[in-house]
Amino acid sequence: MLNKTQFWHLRNHDLFDILSDSDISDLCIISNFKTGNKGDMIFFSDSDVKRLYTIKEGTLKICTNDKTGKEIISEILTIHDIFGHVALEGSKQAPKEYAKVLSDTIKVCSFEVAHFKKVLNRNPDLTTKYNSYVGDKLVDFQNKYSDLVFKDVATRLVEFFKKYAAHSGRILGSKAEMEMLLTHQEIADYIAASRQTVTQLINSLEGQGKIIYEGRKKVVIPDINNL
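^ that's the sequence the OP posted. Answer follows.
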């Protein structure tokens, strides 16, 4: 029996909006839904079964560990974002990644890569759209690592808040509101800075009234154009 939750998640996903209802129903057959809680590991890149994931509800972080074991956060992902074996091919040279839940709960949909590749082979338009998505993701990575080289920590922090607001928050005019799911340490891990520096910079932004922490999680940016 067709799962309506699966169907409507895929039907409303930007990647699959070019598919017919019949194609979406076929996609549901090879999909698997999974739920998790804050702190759970959802994905490991070195798992035996290669899978592609899309987020139905919630937020997670994609991480690697450096040689000392320190966590490095490469992406913050939320509803409809795709992660996992995005290249659809394994690589022994690729760093070992994992996905860890940031929100209280999460729901993800996944496909075995072998099955998903068969779907792409039957749908040239979907293949083109997926390749465009992968290309955009690569550009995002290139921009992030370019920022690490050419921009200072204060600039990277401001751009983190702007990107987080646009991707995971709500912007009304020039005002932005968001639920901040990352600790100061996790923000530091994302922008490649120390926790102490991030805390000092956030305190400075708060002192200038450019960001406002309301409680533990809610963050308000009164004027995102003047951050």
